[in-house]
TrEMBL record:
NCBIfam families: sensory_box (TIGR00229). This is histidine kinase. InterPro entries: BphY/WalK/GraS-like, CheY-like_superfamily, HATPase_C_sf, HATPase_dom, His_kinase_dom, HisK_dim/P_dom, HisK_dim/P_sf, PAC. Residues 153-202, 269-336, 392-450 form the PAS domain. It catalyses: ATP + protein L-histidine = ADP + protein N-phospho-L-histidine. It comes from Natronoarchaeum philippinense. Residues 19-137 form the Response regulatory domain.
Amino acid sequence: MTFDGTLPESPLRDSTPIDILLVEPDAEFAEMVAACLERDDGEFAVYIEANPDDAMAVIRDETTAVDCVVSGYDMPEMDGLDLLDAVRERDPDRPFILFTGEGSEALASKAISAGVTDYVRKRGGTEQCQALANRVRNAVERYRAEQYLDRGRQAIESAHDGISIIDRDGRIRYLNTAYAELFGYDRAELQGRHWELLYREDDLQKVYDVLLPEARSGRWSGRTEFVRKDGDVIDAEHTLTYTDGGWLVCTVAPPQDEQAEQHLSVKGRAMDEAPVGIVLTDPSAADNPIIYANDKFVDLTGYEKSEAIGRNCRFLQGERTREEPVRKLREAVEAREPATVELRNYRADGTEFWNRVRIAPVFGNDGDVELFVGFQSDVTTRKEREQQLRSSTARLEALFENSPDMIAIHDADGTIRDANRRMCEELGYARSELVGKSVWELDPTVDPDEARSFWNELPMQTPRRFNGELERKDDTTFPVEIHLIRVDLDGEDRFVAMDRDISDQQKRESRLVEQNQRLDRFTSVVSHDLRNPLNVAKGRLELLREDCDSDQIEDLDVALSRMDNMIDDLLTLAQEGERAMEIETLDVTTVVEACWETVATGDATLDTDIDATVDADRDQLQQLFENLIRNAVEHSSASPDSEHGGDTVTVTVGEIDRGFYVADDGPGIPEDERDDVFEAGYSTEAGGTGFGLSIVEQVVDAHDWTITVTESDDGGARFEIRTD
């Protein structure tokens, strides 16, 4: 596309249309989603394709503009991740949102690793469409903002207009190539020279008396006669604008160039409208103060331009700003070099944000730095993700020596650098005997060349899982499941391999193949054949609510919501039995507190009176605690007349001999009903699904534990779980 001399409008305007390609094989569900999206935002235009191949044909058609692809996961010929790979091969940056009824963490992890823009679960009713609409709108705005920034940069450097920035002493500190060529100079010849060089002596007084005062009042624009290097006089369109720091932005366009006539003040407009914060600083002044800040800097930091001009950028720092990135910036300024850092900054209201700061010097003709330009972007979301990954590494280090799993650390050549106690004991080696061995000496299934190639391509902090074998010192072998992650340990590229003996697991899995096939068929029917019609019904019900008024609508809504909850619980019951358990030693308090954050607890209170660990599957133990907590809160809320009921219920997790208990001070469970509470379908709440405690019993049985129901000290329910 050829640049036509005008700047594009900001891509962030709400009125910009957004074209959505919806890839969904269920035609009725797709039509409902499209109707809800277009009703939610009048600027949405939704195009539906049932087949991924047809969707790719639309994307490959250059005459069709698709701003965002929204795709289901379970589809004929290829699934949603396969479609994502095909889209990414053609367009690595196009927004792609996976919209699926599948909700496993494994699928979410695979989608993120494959480069999906966002991941949205299908739910009942139009609320799912509102969530999807927000995700689409945010993804497209980010995508357009990045494109807009790239166009702005190109416009500044390749503008047909001549652009210069002049300091308070009248010397040209920056100019683009077009500016130098317009006056017949090389770029270096004009840097550091006074602007009077370009005027006839008779015209200088007019510049001082008329042009500059008007520019200080806001802006001056008109025609000016300039003198070229060869002595020729040219008549050109001329614009002058002062920055808040007193520097002058000058734009010159030759009148004979019609395209340049349309392209006034590109530099100033691009900087003012850029979607990132931009500042200019003057290193020749004391403390390198800010002399210009654009509007996005104001939006990013909350400081007005008048509050920033004249101050060093360090005023954005605060209590938790680390010294290392600050020192790197300071040293770059002193060395007159570019630098990029990420550091905590503080907005005017005191809130923290992670700021990606890129600075670069602008050199004058004499080789001295005349300006520093700084670009600032909010990268808080990305930094939070990185911190989560780093915490995972920290957990690996903490579990290393005492982990019940075998852990080895090796380098990119396959040489073992360390091994934990369990690895040494299981293989029959002393630690000194293992250190220095190669990975393929312990795993006869490893091909050295393939292993090295795989390790070199493995991204940092991205876990991988696969199966292998380990050979003991006595030459016996056994199968293992290997969890591998690449990390930076004290500046060294290392690979942490956690090996688990899966001999018993493989035996169990062989017996469970037929059962899992039945479960797969069941979950497919529940997840797709039941879920999609239910979602369609809820969506149509919401549309019906807007079109007419009936007393029957609320009853229908309650019934459909209860069906939706039942499907969730049925899937949980089925899916918990599909996978082999991964037993590890878990701190009970840590797991309980994490579960408390995921359950809607209102004003309820948690009291953890336990200092114990338990050997369990993490996901299933979380499922157990979540359901017991939810049971306590919901059943107590259902009895507001009880002495301790309602939202103020207290849930206590404590230690007992050979196990733990979960108790509350709510209305309790009648003694004659305690034998029935774990039966599927049992519920004392009108809207309950009756599967919550059945799931709890399933988790207990899977671990070969026992559970009993009794009365708590405060008259509520008490569930006692014994682990041996």
